[in-house]
Amino acid sequence: HAQAMSAEEAAALRAELAALKAKVQTLEDRLDAATAPAAAPSGAAGAVTPAAAPVTAAAAPAKPGPDIAWKGAPEIKTADGWSFKPRGRIQLDLASIDAPPGVTDTHGGLATEFRRVYLGVDGKIPGGISYRVEVDVANSSVELTDVYLTYGTGPLSITAGQIKPFWSLEEMTSDLFTSFAERAAFTQAFGFERRVGLSGQYKGKALLVQGGVFGDNANDLLSDSDNSVSVDGRVVWMPSFGDTQLHLGASAHWRKANDGPSAVRYAARPFVHTTNSRLVDTGTFTATSERGLGLEGALIAGPFHVASEGFWQTARRPGLADPTFFGGYAEVGYVLTRGDRRGYKDGSFDRLAPSRPITAGGPGAIEINARYDHLDLSDAGIAGGRQRTLGVAVVWAPIPYLRLTANYGHLMYDDAAIGSTSGDRNYSADAFGLRTQIDF
Amino acid sequence: HAQAMSAEEAAALRAELAALKAKVQTLEDRLDAATAPAAAPSGAAGAVTPAAAPVTAAAAPAKPGPDIAWKGAPEIKTADGWSFKPRGRIQLDLASIDAPPGVTDTHGGLATEFRRVYLGVDGKIPGGISYRVEVDVANSSVELTDVYLTYGTGPLSITAGQIKPFWSLEEMTSDLFTSFAERAAFTQAFGFERRVGLSGQYKGKALLVQGGVFGDNANDLLSDSDNSVSVDGRVVWMPSFGDTQLHLGASAHWRKANDGPSAVRYAARPFVHTTNSRLVDTGTFTATSERGLGLEGALIAGPFHVASEGFWQTARRPGLADPTFFGGYAEVGYVLTRGDRRGYKDGSFDRLAPSRPITAGGPGAIEINARYDHLDLSDAGIAGGRQRTLGVAVVWAPIPYLRLTANYGHLMYDDAAIGSTSGDRNYSADAFGLRTQIDF
Amino acid sequence: HAQAMSAEEAAALRAELAALKAKVQTLEDRLDAATAPAAAPSGAAGAVTPAAAPVTAAAAPAKPGPDIAWKGAPEIKTADGWSFKPRGRIQLDLASIDAPPGVTDTHGGLATEFRRVYLGVDGKIPGGISYRVEVDVANSSVELTDVYLTYGTGPLSITAGQIKPFWSLEEMTSDLFTSFAERAAFTQAFGFERRVGLSGQYKGKALLVQGGVFGDNANDLLSDSDNSVSVDGRVVWMPSFGDTQLHLGASAHWRKANDGPSAVRYAARPFVHTTNSRLVDTGTFTATSERGLGLEGALIAGPFHVASEGFWQTARRPGLADPTFFGGYAEVGYVLTRGDRRGYKDGSFDRLAPSRPITAGGPGAIEINARYDHLDLSDAGIAGGRQRTLGVAVVWAPIPYLRLTANYGHLMYDDAAIGSTSGDRNYSADAFGLRTQIDF
User: Fold this and answer.
1) What ipTM is given for this predicted complex?
2) Which of A195, B429, C153, C228 lies 20 to 30 A from A155 at CA?
3) Going by C-beta distance under 8 Å and a sequence separation of 6 or more, which residues neighbour residue B45?
4) Chain C residues with beta carbon closer than 8 angstroms to that of A24
5) Tens digit of pLDDT for each residue in C139-183?
6) Spatial contact of C10 and B5, defined as CB atoms under 8 Å apart
7) Is B31 among the domain residues?
8) Do both C162 and C59 map to the same domain?
9) What pLDDT is stored for residue B6 in this prediction?
10) Final residue of a domain: which of A65, A89, A112?
């Protein structure tokens, strides 16, 4: 039995509906004004409104408020292109070196070190501008790391400020993501560092071209001998085929010393950073210019990766033969945890992010790496010695922004710069390092 | 033909409406609790509710959450008066000086420098308290810049901490907003710097009165000779008439040296900051106290502005005549881009903000400035020399927080403190500087 | 008289209702996606939905966005366990010492100092990990303070990095919350500092057990003499009975010097920090190891509190008698403002938070403290002198994160390390300090 609704009841219903509609509209306006992240495609609300219905779905196009994304730390950004994100990292190292007596300052025992403590910010400004300011405070001093402005809206961009001058795959890969706690010996021996300059980059889908003119590290700009100039360039071909990422690159570097000949020195620490001893060391000599050539190759295929580099550094000496020193490495790595692989992005290795982090009951991501690292600092009458290192590393990322790296290196020296107390310059040493690292 | 709605249908409709109303109310409560920026005037929702309708529009007065405004970086603030904003700036300089041989350490060639790299925070605390902590890390060291607390709810405020002791229009204007990359020579020569002290300020509509007692720069507080005391004050009349802003000011300064006579030195770099050479330089001499008097005048009329200052610094020497050194400048400027003008706020020049930034397809804001800058450091037997500079600058702000400044200065020296290799102390020099700057 | 609703009307109503329901659902989804703080208990929306109604209340379980809490500065956090909060503090001191002539470097007159200027961040990572990076930039240098990672999901946690090695109640209490501007003399004399190490903690309801192995302060890790190792532990029983909090604790410390005997020195400043003079001072002597034992007791009963500690530091000297130095204090305090009490948390005193801050028209929180502080640095042939201090302090917290501390100390010396110009080593001195402090 159907009873008719009264006119009063129907009118009340209609009034309630009208009030509700107004209220929902108000809510939507407020949402639009306040919560940019909630910005559903503009048609979404309308799409569910039957065309015949008298509901006006269009909210006033209020300016949306900032959104907060999370990348280890909050990234606050607006719909019109501003963004701001704090940056930082802690690397706490525990390391030990076992070398013949007299060779290292710290032998036996363990040493600890804050390897890096970074604090800084990343920002984006509408119109294609981005910037970074970051400092390393680990050594109870302030060292500027990346401090730059970049302009670019498409594949081309230009950057002014202090960055790494496009040295090598190993160097261009963030220290957060390297295969071992410390980079290959040649990157240290040949004085790779950040420098202040002006550079440009073309980043295509499979091609990366980088080049620039650089002065000195910001630290050294303070001295009034800031007239060194370098020209640095790098080309990378980085096609990907399904699950496979290829990386083939080359870089060239030329640096002219200050006004006249200046002092250079090539030397490297033994596998870990806690010691100040350089067992291979050319000592300081005079050079008018430096030239560097590097070759890079890498392949990531599912959980496997291989990588190898070689770098030739030549110093031009006035009135003497020009020595060319060589360093390089070859490594293989395998990610043990199912579904994970070594990250790669824009010509560098990237974060090892676990697909099953411990917070989801998973094992995190575990990678094992093995490397042969070679450095020869003897040439043209300069006897800096030769260092060969066999290293293995285990990297564990229980969650994306936390990482532990345990690595061991067996070092073999020929004609080492520092002899043992018995006068031996051909010896071997062993080093172990454990790094605990977070970043944001 | 009208068919009656069944009672069941009507009841179902009513139930749906009741559920919807509850749901909307829940949404509104959640919005109120979560999104302060969305806080519509409290009557808004009710206003669209027909008076006869049974909808209760009043949401529970939940405490609103923080709002995020954007001033180069996000400023997070709450409805009850807290706020927090990161601060920072990068100034990257490229500069060159062409002077007679032997005059400057860097002659010919270009030099680059991070002029300033600031990181810090600004905050507000309910009850009229605000604070700032900011450091300059440009020199791979940490230098405290503004570090203070201010209390004040009306035109009167008091400030404890390190600030600028109210020196001059040029000095009180942030280095982000000056007409040239570097300030007038006298501000540098007379040792204007931030100092730790206690000060008060009255800021009326057209009158600004500032005064305080100061010790040393935070850097120098560490030495145990922290007994210098200065009394500093400044008065500014700053009426505005329609499109015209007038600025007339005067400042007075008195500083007593540590316990007894101490070393003072007045000197200035030549137009740019990349060199450490001071071509005008009194050298170090002994003084018991310092006295400074400054006059300031400026006028902004639409796109035009003029500004001029003079400053007399007197050092009291025990048993010797007291030298009075003078410095000052006069400048004119014009903002080329339609609708833009030089900013002014609270007794200082302010940001040049483009009304048509490049992100809106506009040209940004472009300003040209010309200045005569005068500094005479010779008096009462002290021969520090005289430096006169004719300078022109082009300032381009493509967007509000990004700015490029190109400036050129022709410097003329009489009795310069540093002679050329030929022994000449009357010569001229030319300097060029380019600054790229962002701030947040 | 009941008039039947037309079928068209009913259909229109139903269509409007359907559209509204879709719209509300969209709003809710957007809210869920955007505003974590608004996350009402999941049953809330459903609870108001009549069971018989056809409304489906369950929103798609969209991931909620970050929430912003406020603890002096914004703490941004996500529902899944990330958080990020800037940290900082400013302590601006004004202090004066009145001592016999020749005793202190700064006598008479006032001295000012930025005692601490901290900047840093706190963060949480899902899975029970938290970290802190904070630096002190007060001395125009960078000093790492707390830099650590902690892992722990229940009462047990482990921490790697630089922290305080569980010294004493006074030392473990943040300098933001101490009874006087400076801590008891023994904490300074015995070299309490942060050190890098690995430690564990059990924190039960009334029991706190802390212990770890530590190396050196991050500053000293840079030297290659980083082989000192200490083992430090602390136990606290901290039951609370209604309004009463009891604290009974003990700590033990053992530290072995580098490789062989190394230089130690125990000394303390007189009540304030602005002077560098240490009137009690063992001078530098050689020790092979250090041992420390501390006892702690405190009671908070409503507005009253008492606290007392004693600490015995023994240095082992090769071939000489081992001196044991003693320091300790006893204090009473009373919070004058109704409803306020001294904070206590996890084995340390905590913030004095006003229940009626000045922003609510109240007086803030006011506490008065009186203390006898004892330090004896003479033993076993080492004559470092004895310092006894009677101190009173007034602490005013107008709002939770702003605090002023005025304190006065009367110091009495026997066999002081620094004699007056008349050769007297038994004298008294008076010191006054005023601290203005904010933190976030």
Assistant:
1) 0.85
2) A195
3) A22, A23, A26, B28, B57, B59
4) 20, 23-24, 27
5) 888 999 999 999 998 999 999 999 999 999 999 999 999 999 999
6) yes
7) no
8) no
9) 60
10) A65
